[in-house]
Amino acid sequence: MSAPTMIGLSLPDVDVWSLRVVVALGQNPGLFTGPGTNTYLVGTGPERILVDTGQGVPAYLPVLERALARAGCRIQEIALTHGHPDHLGGVGDLVARFGPLRVSKRPHPGFDAACPVPISPIDDGSRLRCEGATLRAVHTPGHAEDHLCFVLEEEQSLFSGDNVLGVGTTVIPSEGGDLGDYMRSLARLQQEAPRVIYPAHGPKIADGVAKLQEYIDHRNAREREILEALRGGLETIPEIVSRVYAAYPPALHGPARHSVCSHLKKLEREGRVRRDGDVPLDARWKPV
Ligand SMILES: [Zn+2]
């Protein structure tokens, strides 16, 4: 899930992004998915790992079949970055088409029931291997509590899931999202110094380290703007959005409220702002 933007961006359905990475586009374009969810066949041999499965739309399976033919491989197993429906939603179709497949993800108690097969639990530091590829999981909460990124050790590249995107900006949902966690996750990913990032939405990112820095700088700048708006006397989230997002189309102002809200909740936890009102989106906010 990404912030709505660049819906018109089109990418090939199947593409080879490196010696070890073939991408198959999930066929679920939309306001929050950009061109659709990228799914990745990873490895070099006849059996490869599939990272993410798309949303479960019928048009995806023929695309994946073409990617498998292009790569000359079968699916060894599935690794999920997280349990949002545009990543996990294709599992049922895949198992129906290809038979039982191991599906690994970080368990998310209370939410994993959406997965139609039992989950093989993995967590920070777990490794999944196939010929030519070692995927190491990095727990990166913030967009979602169960979110894992995967380092492809042979390339020092990164499957970033929804944490870093080729289009748009990562949404920090009010349910299950946490901007403080997200900023720590970006810092953690910086330590991996990825050369290339393969995002869950949008094109390949050629300079992973620079993109991570850009994301961190962007969020820090946004936080400063929100604090300035509060110091200037604005108190409600719609007021702050109108000021901070003045240059953006009104269609983005709805999602921007959630983004501002995640910033304010982070600042509140840090003791830098306080609020009157129980519901964060409706509260009046003041700097401390
Ligand atoms: Zn997501």
Give a short overview.
The chain is an alpha/beta fold and 288 residues long.
Please tell me about this protein's structure.
The model is unreliable at 1-6 (pLDDT under 50). This protein has 288 residues and is α/β, with parallel strands linked by helices. The strands form three sheets. It has a seven-stranded mixed beta sheet with strand order 1-2-3-4-5-6-7, covered by helices on one side. A five-stranded mixed beta sheet has the order 8-9-10-11-12. 45% of the residues are buried. It has seven helices and 14 strands. The protein has helices at 60-71, 85-88, 91-98, 179-192, 208-231, 237-244, 253-269, and strands at residues 14-18, 21-25, 38-42, 47-51, 74-79, 102-105, 120-121, 127-130, 133-139, 148-152, 157-161, 197-199, 273-276, 284-287. Bound molecules: zinc ion (ZN). Zinc ion binds at residues 1, 82, 84, 143-144, 162.
Low-confidence stretches: 1-6
Please tally the helical runs, counting DSSP H or I stretches of 4 or more residues. Answer: 7
Largest sheet, order of strands side by side? Answer: 1-2-3-4-5-6-7
User: What structural class do you assign from the helix and strand content?
Assistant: alpha/beta
